[in-house]
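Quick one:
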Amino acid sequence: MAPGNPEANGAGVTISWRAMAFAPAAVVLFVLALYFNNAQKQFPALICLGGTFALVTAWLALSARATGNPDSPIRMFIPRLTLFIVLGTAFLAAMHWRIDQRITAMEIGFAVFYIAAGWFGVRGFDARFRRPELSAVPGKKPPRRNGPPR
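Output:
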C-alpha cells in the first residue's frame, strides 16, 4: 500500500469505490444474462443484460461527476456510449415488438434510463467546470434589493 492513499495498491494504481462496487456487479449480471440466454429464458436474460448496461452507464455518469479534469476523455465518451446503447436498445425493442410486447416496453424503459443517465453525466460534468463570467460595470451602482435602481 502506498503511504497517504489507502486505496492505492502496490503498483500505485488507485481504485475508486465505484470500480469496486460496479465492476463485479456488472460482471455478475452479464454472466447471468448469458446463463439465462443459454437456458432459453429470454425475459430474465434481457433484464440482466439491460441491468448490466444500466450499471455501466450509471458508473460512467458518476465517474464523470467525480473527475477533476475538464479535458477528460470521459466527457466525449458519454454521448457516444449513450447513443450506441440507445440505438441497440431501440433495435432490440423493434425486433421483439411482434413477439413479446413486454420486452419492448422493458427495453423502452431501459432506453429512457440510458438517456437520463447520459444527460446526468454530461450535465454534471459541464456544470462542474463552467464558471460564471462576471465583470464589473464601471460607473453604475448595483440595484437595491427592494425597489428601483438608484
